[in-house]
Design brief:
Helix content is 40%, strand content 4%. The protein is mainly alpha-helical. The radius of gyration is 31 Å and the shape is elongated. The relative contact order is 0.08.
């Protein structure tokens, strides 16, 4: 067994988790199985396996930003503004 009941009790105490005796046995068995599996994974040869952050290839589906030439000029944009000062939009103050 890779983990003992006392170790599970200790970790549960650190996490402030109160466990009954039957829960303690159940979690000890479950954690032991998990640790056995991790030990099997540690025995694999991963020397020539490149590190990855995802198991599938990710592809950006967003379009590229391109200048379309259809932008409003500064004068055209400020003409539609409800309030302006010179060539700038005027907005209410929100910070005191």
């Amino acid at each position: 067994m890779a983990i003992s009941k006392e170790e599970v009790r200790y970790v549960a105490n650190l996490a402030r988790i109160k466990m009954k005796e039957n829960e303690l046995e159940k979690f000890t068995l479950q954690l032991d199985k998990i640790l056995e599996y991790v030990n099997k994974l540690n025995q694999l040869d991963t020397e020539n396996v490149p590190p990855t952050s995802h198991i599938i290839n990710l592809k950006n589906i967003m379009r590229k930003d391109e200048i379309s030439g259809e932008s409003l000029s500064n004068d055209e944009a400020t003409q539609m503004a409800p309030d302006k000062e010179n060539e700038f939009f005027r907005v209410p103050k929100i910070i005191e």
